[in-house]
Amino acid sequence: VIDIRKLYAQGDVFTFDPGFTSTASCESTITFIDGDKGELLYRGYPIDQLASQSNYIEVCYLLLYGELPDKAQYDEFSYRITRHTMVHEQMHNFFRGFRRDAHPMATMVGVVGAMSAFYHDSTDVTDEWQREVAAIRMIAKMPTIAAMAYKYSIGQPFVYPRNDLDYASNFLNMCFSVPAEPYKIEPALARAMDRIFTLHADHEQNASTSTVRLAGSSGANPFACIAAGIACLWGPAHGGANQAALEMLRTIGTVDKIPEYVARAKDKNDPFRLMGFGHRVYKNFDPRAKVMKESADEVLDLLGIHNNETLKVAKELERIALEDEYFIEKKLYPNVDFYSGIILEAMGFPTAMFTPIFALSRTVGWIAQWKEMIGDKNQKIGRPRQLYVGEAARDYVDIAKR
Ligand code: ACO
User: What is stated as this protein's family in its record (predicted)?
Assistant: First the structure.
């Protein structure tokens, strides 16, 4: 690792690194990835242990404060999150300004960005207490906002959060309850939902997290920064891949069609890619995909969904791709988005809700990284350089002479 800053200050070096493939933008103590081993640690704890033994609220505490909470700390943190789940009543009017057929991610970018117009006591980034309140508010309100975006898109009344429910159950209830028939919360499903939140909670300097840090480096308020992160996450090469992956699996439809799509993915003249496959950092199995695959089997079993054609296509596609020279040579493995859509669809979510669920899960990671950045003594405004390849200086020509 070369620390280029001193050389740069002396005018000795200038690096060109499109896509930041080999540039560290910060130091961080939050998440560690070993892409060759397929290892992911939150504050040193392996993701598979956290997914199976911990829960999302505990993971939020860990990501934000660096250590697992004791019982009293856990209870207090959980209480604070629960007490902040409601959104300002006037935000309901804000939702109603959107078209019903808006993608829930479009609504979320707008609503989260607008939070700085509602919560004036948590926008001063120089004040530690305000930063803390903003963090709690964001984690608490994101499920409410995502559920409201969903309810609005299907023309149903908003469902208020309930303080007697845990984080995942509350989200499921806000999405699936209707006044005529309260949603029956199945604890095993809530657990699976919670696991999906945990698996997506942070992933070091990915595109959306880097966006949040870059926006925050100018001193922008946390709500504006998170809105920027949501916008970035939406793209199909990033969080939008979970929706794209399920749509791809449905398009493939049956296992006999898989070779045709694998051939297309390998054809350099065809823009088609296997969605949910490949990763900038993992050159081995994404450890989150492993947990997600097991969870898909469990959830479908629990819901009595047997012989699910999409899951069959996914597993066979994985098998064929992992034996194919092209995917072996390029080290392309299923990523977190490959199986998550199958679980979410089985739970009753439409594909348009997949990326909002990713966004609400990732909010804690964005906030933890944002807080870390503000506390970093090396923090500077993010300002990449460029290699200018345009015209040399030339004189203006009057329009009549062009
Ligand atoms: N299907 C077919 N070929 C692929 C795929 C894929 N899914 N992913 C990468 N490749 C090929 C590329 O064509 C390229 O081939 P080349 O060297 O012959 O040009 C090579 O593998 C390297 O790919 P890059 O795009 O250069 O790798 P990069 O690290 O920039 O991109 C990315 C990573 C964006 C995730 C890419 O693998 C991809 O587009 N995957 C599909 C979308 C997806 O699943 N995104 C979710 C990522 S995880 C997340 O954000 C939560």
Answer: Belongs to the citrate synthase family.
